[in-house]
Amino acid sequence: MIADAIEDEVVNAGLGIGALVATEGELVQRFGVSRATIREAVGLVERRGTAAMRPGKKGGLVVAGHGHDAAVRALSTYMELADTRIEDLFSVRLRFELLAVELASERLDAEDATELRALVDRLEQPTGDPLTDARTRDAIRHAIAKATRNPALVLFVDALNI
């Protein structure tokens, strides 16, 4: 419950990456629990990728910069645990990718176009390594999703690329 409350605070306060959420002592007072309980809650928040405890005199719980990666891993893990069939993944992925292409075509800027062109050029020169070429295709999907300016779409496209 405390971990959820801390994460809600991070989201509702609109704190940016690197922003101080609170010191350990402040969290102990705010929630009226022991340091051990706060450390357990903070550990969960850290594992979720929302925030991390920064040590030192100016330390405390700070907003982490890799929340997206943690969310992608969580979605991917859920799909595996739910025994999602590969056919279902491909069907959903196709729908998200078509939506991403449609939105990206409306919102694409010069920087996005340059990035996509470079990725397509790289894909047109196959390396002979299937893993490297697959990563390039995933990077293209990510770049298209990013060009939509829709963070939810980027999250789902990335989760389906795993």
Helix content: over 70%
Specify Rg, calculated over alpha carbons: 20 Å
Output the strand order for the largest sheet.
1-3-2
Shape: elongated
H-E order: HEHHEEHHHHH
Task: Give the helix tally.
Answer: 8
Structural class comes to mainly alpha
Separation of termini? 30 Å
Strand content: 5-15%
| DSSP summary, beta strand count | 3
User: For the report, how would you describe the main beta sheet?
Assistant: 3 strands, antiparallel
Which consecutive residue ranges, at least 5 long each, have pLDDT under 50?
Answer: none
Q: Average pLDDT across residues?
A: 90
Question: What would you say this structure looks like, in words?
Answer:
The structure is a single chain. With 162 residues, the protein is mainly alpha-helical. It has helices at 2-13, 24-31, 35-48, 67-81, 86-107, 110-123, 130-147, 151-161, and strands at residues 20-22, 51-54, 60-63. A 3-stranded antiparallel beta sheet has the order 1-3-2. A hairpin with a 5-residue loop joins strand 2 (51-54) and strand 3 (60-63). The longest helix has 22 residues, at 86-107.
In short:
By secondary structure, the chain is mostly helical.
Main features:
single chain; 162 residues; mainly alpha; 3-stranded antiparallel sheet; 8 helices; elongated
What does the secondary structure layout of this molecule look like, with pairings?
Elements: H1 2-13, E1 20-22, H2 24-31, H3 35-48, E2 51-54, E3 60-63, H4 67-81, H5 86-107, H6 110-123, H7 130-147, H8 151-161
Antiparallel strand pairs: 1-3, 2-3
Helix pairs in contact: 1-3, 2-3, 4-8, 5-7, 5-8, 6-7, 7-8
